[in-house]
Specification:
It is a single chain. With 278 residues, the chain is mainly alpha-helical. The protein is built from ten helices and two strands; from the N terminus they run H-H-H-E-H-H-E-H-H-H-H-H. It has a two-stranded parallel sheet. The longest helix is centred in the middle third of the chain and has 43 residues.
């Protein structure tokens, strides 16, 4: 007696993975769109150089100084170089949201559902912290720092004369440096969340962290004077202490949650009273 073969219980699904060449094509278009947005934003910065330059000169005005009396051009092509520098900086700032969107559009298909939900909050918090650090430097520290150096020159009996490229380099490095320094809490939170760092480790090596902060501040600051170093190192250490407390909160919240490997006693069957099946 013959039996008809049973249909297979395994259903074959077509794979959703793209071939390697299609990934390269997506990467090529992502780079092209990012560069195109950067170029368009840079053109806007090149056309609107004068008002943007006015924003960069505002900290010097708040320090009580006249930019026309302090700043000079020494090179023949310095005006054109400054305009290119401002246009490139404006292009990076204006096109950054679009570039992040294109990068996310390229990476999101490879992420899990949990990772996709975490992308937007991480980018939002990171952008907020960077803007907060940049604004703190631009509106609060830069005028005080410039006033300090102008007064320092006067105390030495020397007239203050800076070149405009040197001044712009100083302002941009200060703003970007503080923006990057304010990302420290986000980095610590992510490392703690993934179990790479522990709050106890951060507290135990606090002295080592101070040394690392001083070295990082020395690398970020555009000058080697102790005054500017302290202005960056002090907020970074305060952010480090805030990061320690945030890491403690994450660990306490994680410890209060039951481990998925340990089933609840209410869900565990009582096998003592069960009799073996006949």
């Amino acid at each position: 007696m013959s039996y008809a073969p049973e249909p297979s219980c395994v259903t074959m699904h077509p794979t959703d993975e793209k071939p390697f060449l299609e990934h390269l094509e997506d990467l090529r278009w992502m780079i092209f769109k990012a560069l195109a947005s950067l170029a368009l934003a840079a053109v806007v910065g090149f056309v609107e150089t004068k008002p943007i330059l006015g924003l960069l000169l505002d900290p010097l005005k708040k320090a009580g100084e006249d930019p026309a009396k302090i700043l000079r051009f020494l090179g023949v092509v310095d005006p054109f170089s400054v305009q290119l520098q401002i246009s490139l900086l404006t292009g990076i700032v204006l096109s950054l949201p679009a570039i992040l969107y294109f990068v996310g559009e390229f990476l999101l298909p490879a992420l899990t559902a949990t990772e996709k939900r975490a992308v937007l909050p991480i980018f939002s918090v990171g952008a907020f912290l960077f803007l907060l650090g940049g604004f703190f430097s631009y509106a609060g520290l830069l005028p005080q720092t410039l006033r300090f150096f102008v007064q320092y020159s006067h105390n030495l009996g020397v007239e203050t004369q800076w070149t405009l490229p040197n001044y712009l380099d100083f302002v941009i490095q200060m703003v970007v440096g503080f923006g990057l320094a304010f990302e420290l809490p986000l980095v610590v939170v992510l490392l703690t969340y993934f179990g790479i760092l522990r709050a106890e480790l951060l507290r135990r090596y606090r002295r080592h962290a101070i040394v690392v902060i001083l070295v990082a501040a020395a690398c970020i600051t555009p000058t080697s004077d102790p005054f500017t170093l302290f202005l960056l190192a002090a907020p970074m250490y305060l952010l480090y202490e805030i990061s320690v407390w945030i890491a403690l909160g994450i660990e306490r919240k994680r410890n209060r949650q039951p481990s998925p490997s340990e089933p609840s006693p209410l869900l565990t069957p009582d096998l003592k009273g069960e009799k073996p099946a006949p």
